[in-house]
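Most newcomers find our protein records easier to grasp once they have seen one. The structure tokens are whole numbers drawn from a learned vocabulary of backbone shapes. The record below serves as our worked example for the rest of this section.
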Amino acid sequence: MRLTRFTDYGLRTLIYLALRPDALASIAEIAAAYRISESHMTKVVFALGQAGLIETLRGRHGGLRLARAAALIGLGAVVRATEPELALVECQAGGECAIDGCCRLRSIMDEATGALLSVLDRYTVADVAGPDSRALLRRLGLPEAAGLTGQNPA
């Protein structure tokens, strides 16, 4: 199984915002930090906003921030919100199969998907951004005065 780029970019966006809990960020700066197209980043940000994971503030002094503390945003919730289809095999997605109903493959794959999500549910954006936030800040070109506080910026 491989997550889509869309989910990857969504997770990266949340990590970036978690590293700057007291500041607003722009789509342009996040896209530049990760060397991602602004157009694609706009779609990702829209989806994260629709899922209630980030807040977008319009206007001259607007920008993006986490909708709640990074410690309250589970990775499993992010994947569920950004992945259009989590099925590992076609029969999980309701596809037609000649052996449907007498094959255990669907239940095994459902269990595997559940296990993946169960592991992701144990971790938060803070867990990803926090352990070595200084290295992440340096890599993304952010000031080290920023950093994960676990506080809700709102």
Observations:
- Residues 70 and 126 are 5 Å apart (CA to CA).
- The mean pLDDT is 86.
- The longest strand covers residues 54-57.
- DSSP finds seven helices and two strands in the chain.
